[in-house]
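User: Could you check the structure of this?
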Amino acid sequence: MSRLRILVVHNRYQQRGGEDAVVEAEVALLRAHGHPVRLYARSNDEVRTMTRLGVVADTLWSRQTSHDITDRITRFRPDVIHVHNTFPLVSASLYWAASRLGVPVIQTLHNFRLLCPQAMFLRDGHVCEDCLGKIPWRAVTRRCYHDSFTHSAVQVAALGVHRVLRTYDTQIDRYIALTAFCRDKFVAGGLPAGKIAVKPNFVDMPPAPAATDTRRGLLFAGRLAPEKGTAVLLQALDLAPELEVDVVGSGPDEQRLRRHPRVRMLGWLAPEALYDRMQKAACLVMPSIWYENFPRTLVEAFASGLPVIGSRLGALAEIIGDGHTGLLFETGSAAALAEKMRWALANPQRVSRMGQNARAEYDARFTPERNYEQLAAIYGDVIAAKRMPVAV
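Assistant: Sure, the predicted structure tokens are below.
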């Protein structure tokens, strides 16, 4: 595509996560291909200096964002605006500001927040779709967001206001879902099917070392939180006393994991150190109990030639080829997970072949160049459609 001018919009989290890394990677990718890119970012750190009423007001409709986006469009004159996270401070006001000035808007759907105030379709340790395709009032009575009636009510109010205004139907030109599974959920939740493209995340990694018989052990990497299946992992270790797992990451479940005698805590590792671990392990374990949109860790594993043992749930079941690039097990079943981990360590040659397949899958689908091709096609389609005259 020509050297399009792109304005990227993102509301950063207080604790850096996968979405922040994806935004940085896409901005770098676009600039590497010669595109002028500007980033408009707000940070949740701003909340610390705002009044409660100010936070609520910005969540519903941010006047600051509307002013800032109008100014950025006037000065930078972007061909397209690519939005990532808007919650809570950027808000949906940006879509209306862009629409007024005729700039097409693309929104990447990194989580399920447009359908579920808690963003994960998870309640009491189980998948919950009670609000799918409905007014999410149950999230208020159940205190789904931050276990708070007030916080949940504000989030539900913001969704409600913009559903009434039809913001999500009329003010966004194209959505990007990260998997076909996620696309289907958003369609079931009411987003226009014809506006949703599927484009995965990517990572930029060098070729994995040649397969050898020196890979050893099981690895868990990610946020140490209940939705990642940490309890299932510990229960599986209790059922298989011969197994040990290296754990990379931090989070609320860290101390619980640290107390287990067969968990080796490695803490948070810089990307290069994590990749080194991935290239030495036999399998990555992902026992998540929520849908997962598109875990960056999984693609990093594939790029490292590392097969993945994952829950048969959501995006994991779509991305992991059972018996080809990894193994799938029944979600939440510690016994099933223990069985798969035992099998993996007992069959190193077959697991090595899965690792080679995983790297081939990365080369075919998840490289920067492949991702740029997909992103360029989406930008081109949206801009062309915006310029197309309306039939009368």
